[in-house]
């Protein structure tokens, strides 16, 4: 059965354009034009991915993102934010709220489709690594897509989970921001490396004291320090 993409935007032309390209790519499409409809459809359909405009009538995108990520039933839904807000502070806010990616208007439908596929590919995972990774009190169950610190469960977004797995699998080795963008996000190395820093900060916050094992290699990237 085709995966469902929920497209939320108050501009009919934008919804129709994205719907056309997503349907052409083989996805099922659901549409919403305001915040209240977006929340209702997200909870009812549990789509494979949500394309979410930030400036919406009823409820703004930030509030929708915060609500969905705070609900155990919907927190797993990846969110691609689509907005005219192009300032760095807006991108950072989106990532801190739990968004998996961010595209600014005007946009290329082909780029949006590329981002959608990349997010879904990360979610599914294309590899079959060891089922459990452990280091410094951190335990990651790959099969169940669960993480724990000191035996206590930690709620991670899809991107944070993939980022932690990449660091644990390459413990002791420096991972450049470009490498992480390519391996975790599936992007080309010429994309904005600040995306990595934003997600790394959120991941560290959730890992508590164990976050000290993730070292910043100034001017290069990150490394999970070996004991």
Description:
This protein is α/β, with parallel strands linked by helices. The chain folds into 2 domains: 4-124, Response regulator (Rossmann fold), CATH 3.40.50; 132-224, Winged helix-like DNA-binding domain superfamily/Winged helix DNA-binding domain (Arc Repressor Mutant, subunit A), CATH 1.10.10. The protein is built from 8 helices and 12 strands. The chain has helices spanning 12-24, 35-45, 61-69, 88-96, 109-124, 158-169, 177-185, 194-207; strands spanning 4-8, 28-32, 49-53, 79-83, 101-104, 132-135, 138-141, 146-149, 152-154, 175-176, 214-217, 221-224. It has a 5-stranded parallel β-sheet, with helices on both faces. A 4-stranded antiparallel β-sheet has the order 6-7-8-9, with helices on one face. The longest helix is centred in the middle third of the chain and has 16 residues, at 109-124. It starts with a strand and ends with a strand. Residues 126-130 have low confidence and may be disordered.
